[in-house]
Amino acid sequence: MRLTKQPAIELKQNLFSAGGNDSVTHQLECSASRLIVRKNGFTLVEVLLVIAIIGLLAVIAIPQFIAYRSRAVDAQLKSDLRNAAVAVESYFTKQSVYPASIAEVQGYGFQASDGVTLSLTIVTPNSYTITAAKSGGTQPSFTFTSSSGSID
Known about the structure:
Shape: rod-shaped
Number of domains: 2
Radius of gyration: 36 Å
Number of strands: 4
Strand content: 5-15%
Distance between the termini: 85 Å
Strand order of the largest sheet: 1-2-3-4
Oligomer: single chain
Largest sheet: 4 strands, antiparallel
């Protein structure tokens, strides 16, 4: 059989008329017609399966996203505490006394992040605590203690 450009119907007829079992020919014709019909869209089962998979992924991803955001807020608070402590120590180096409030250390290179509330408490003439608070973290606030240099 020579291959030439023929319309799809003639080619199909030539293939099926080349011989063979009529039941096989009928099955092939039915399969071909089903393929042509299926090109119009997705079945309801396929659409529901895709929606179920997307829903399952959302159930897994949303709690993880919330946990990541909470840890990011915690990291922001701790970073602001460390930066504020460096600015307070710089202020002490120049003035020989700790500042009365966080507002006084802004001239020493410290600027709090948006939404973070900081408060400075002088515990003794040689020690202080700084507390940082912002909603959305794993805990309401973190505190830096100058005597130990730790953040709790």
